[in-house]
Amino acid sequence: MTIATKCPVLVTGGAGYIGSHAVLALRDADWPVAVIDDLSTGFAFAVPEEVPFYRGDIADGVLLDQIFTEQGIGHGVGAIMHFAGSVVVPESVENPLRYYDNNTARSRALIEAAVHAGVPHFIFSSTAATYGVPDVEKVAEDTPQQPINPYGWSKLMTERMLADASAAHGFNYGALRYFNVAGADPDGRTGQSTAGATHLIKVACEAAMGKRESVAIFGTDYDTRDGTGVRDYIHVSDLADAHVRTLEALVEQPDRSLTMNCGYGRGFSVREVLDSIDRITGAGIVRREEQRRAGDPARLIADSSRLQETLDWTPRFADLDTIVRHALEWERRLANLREEA
Ligand SMILES: NC(=O)c1ccc[n+]([C@@H]2O[C@H](COP(=O)([O-])OP(=O)(O)OC[C@H]3O[C@@H](n4cnc5c(N)ncnc54)[C@H](O)[C@@H]3O)[C@@H](O)[C@H]2O)c1
After folding, report:
1. What's the 107 CA to ligand 1 centre distance in angstroms?
2. Atom 9 (ligand 1): residue with closest C-alpha?
3. What is the CB < 6 Å shell around ligand 1?
4. Which of the residues 250, 260, 267, 337 could staple to 230 if both were Cys, CB 3.0 to 4.6 A apart?
């Protein structure tokens, strides 16, 4: 694809963990980029200085009109990558209406603004949480979607809105269902910065750095190879690259929308993840064995063949120790950034 065919891309949530990696991947591939983010959980330092940054809400129609006008190079914003949202599953159980507001209602407002502005391509961050607790070895895109929490429902409803709006209004979209996202930019430009994160690799890196006393293992009696839960961890930079390639596919085939699982198709147990961190740091993280949490499946592994077959996507970091090493490097860098601030 030539630079001439690369339209400006608006990245919502571009100051957050995954969105900031997508911004880098788009820039590395010469796509013009702008970011909208309200900084509710994101960080301004995660957005490169040269990238136009609009601090505000994805449901703010006036701001969106301004962006669509200002970023108008020839035919205007050509694509939206929509990462902005609320992402903590237990919080969605405690405060479901907040999740239906931020993830569903505000996505509806964003999609409406995109339709009015005639934006032809839309890529949405969906999640494996839309599948609920699937009783299969590997989860394919046609595995029934039966969420078990408001977070999963809030995302599934947005997938539905996109499918219906796309059919009615003639844009195409990518719905990417991420499994467990982990790691950080290999060049140390961004990473996961959220305090109080709940993701295992992030939490374990914090423990290895002495920021937490121990790491809980929720459930040791699952029917898995070592009794702990197995998950499909995908490196965030491989995921960002999958977004860029999805965008290329949407531009090249404007009549086709794509729904794809994003994972590597193999899983690691909680103990294997902690072993990896111990191996790399020599730290010996303190492990606390706890009861299973309600709603945690024994294993959640993507059948990622559609992603591999549809896109020209070759993962570069599909190795647990590499993911962990990059996450650890970012955790150290983050500690320095916070000391300097
Ligand atoms: N992290 C994962 O493992 C994972 C897995 C599946 C799906 N996802 C999805 O990926 C997306 C990004 O997740 P993340 O882990 O980077 O989270 P994050 O919290 O780091 O990023 C979300 C960003 O969106 C911004 N934001 C939130 N609500 C906003 C609003 N109304 N208007 C403008 N900006 C807003 C936040 O400030 C933040 O910068 C989310 O939609 C999430 O549901 C993440």
Report:
1. 12
2. 125
3. 12-13, 15-19, 36-42, 57-58, 83-85, 87, 102, 106, 125, 127, 178, 180-181, 194, 199
4. 267
Catalytic residue among 100, 151, 173, 264, which? 151
**How many CA atoms, within 13 angstroms, populate the side-chain half-sphere of residue 147?**
19
Which CATH code is given to the segment(s) 3-183+233-263?
3.40.50.720
Residue bearing tokens 């290999």: 186
In order along its 341 residues, the chain shows pLDDT tens digits of: 665 578 899 999 999 999 999 999 999 999 999 999 999 999 999 999 999 999 999 999 999 988 988 765 444 789 999 999 999 999 999 999 999 999 999 999 999 999 999 999 999 999 999 999 998 999 999 999 999 999 999 999 999 999 999 999 999 999 999 999 999 999 999 999 988 788 999 999 999 999 999 999 999 999 999 999 999 999 999 999 999 999 999 999 999 999 999 999 999 999 999 999 999 999 899 999 999 998 889 999 999 999 999 998 999 999 999 999 999 999 999 888 877 76
- Give the 3-state secondary structure of residue 229: coil
Tell me the C-alpha distance between 49 and 102, whole Å: 27
Confirm whether pTM is higher than 0.70: yes
- Any idea where the domains of the chain sit in the sequence? 3-183+233-263
Q: Give the atom of ligand 1 at the shortest distance from the alpha carbon of 155.
A: 43
Instruction: Take residue 3 and report the two structure tokens written for it.
Output: 């630079």
The structure tokens listed for 58 are 């994805």
Ligand 1 centroid, distance to 37 Cα (angstroms): 10
Active-site residue flag, 131: no
| Residue 28 near residue 175 (C-beta atoms within 8 A) | no
User: What is the rounded distance in angstroms from the CA atom of residue 327 to the CA atom of residue 321?
Assistant: 10
